[in-house]
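can u do me a favor
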């Protein structure tokens, strides 16, 4: 066993591996306007494209089945790979040399943890903002319109919409390879009385 992949190498893979290039290896995607691409979701049967890819953010999301994540999460799901296997496959595709380290006896990386918490909260904001554009958020958009909020104002004040699901945000962030304990520490999820996790805003 080679050990744990260094955090900065994982970050480099996320930054370098273009999600549109990776997704297009598995399904045709075309311009959907607004800097995004769309195609038929590979994770459920559909006739109308609801699978969207946003290259500028390195994210994908299906408005049909609610699945979403980054380039690593996509490869994990589409090829049924572990996190490490997906990282290694992407590194090979984009010519990135990975470095491994042993974690035994290593001191905790508080700075790295703080960066993760910041990233989790940033992605949470983007998740809710993106959901404001979904079909199920029509009631939310109507309410904002009645209060004089247009799309520009909603983006300016980071207004979003929470889907009618008790764990959709948690599943979304898990697909981005975050651990449950990190989601709890970041304040976006809470552990239930059993083994399940739920979004904190539910």
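np, heres the sequence
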């Amino acid at each position: 066993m080679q050990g744990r992949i260094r955090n900065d190498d994982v970050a480099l893979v996320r930054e370098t591996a273009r999600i549109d290039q990776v997704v297009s290896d598995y399904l045709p995607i075309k311009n959907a306007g607004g800097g995004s691409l769309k195609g038929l979701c590979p994770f459920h049967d559909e006739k109308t494209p609801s699978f969207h890819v946003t290259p500028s953010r390195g994210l994908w999301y299906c408005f049909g089945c609610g699945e979403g994540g980054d380039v690593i999460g996509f490869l994990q799901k589409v090829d049924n790979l572990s996190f490490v296997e997906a990282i290694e496959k992407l590194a090979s595709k984009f010519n990135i040399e990975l470095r491994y380290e042993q974690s035994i006896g290593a001191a905790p990386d508080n700075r790295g943890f703080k960066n993760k918490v910041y990233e989790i909260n940033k992605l949470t904001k983007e998740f809710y903002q993106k959901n404001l554009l979904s079909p199920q958020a029509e009631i939310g958009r109507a309410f904002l319109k009645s209060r004089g909020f247009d799309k520009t104002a909603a983006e300016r004040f980071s207004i979003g919409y929470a889907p009618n699901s008790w764990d959709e945000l948690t599943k979304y962030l898990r697909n981005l390879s975050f651990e449950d304990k990190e989601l709890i520490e970041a304040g976006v999820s809470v552990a239930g009385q059993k083994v399940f996790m739920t979004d904190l805003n539910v």
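Strands lie at 4-5, 30-33, 36-39, 51-54, 59-62, 68-70, 100-101, 189-191, 197-199. hope that helps!!
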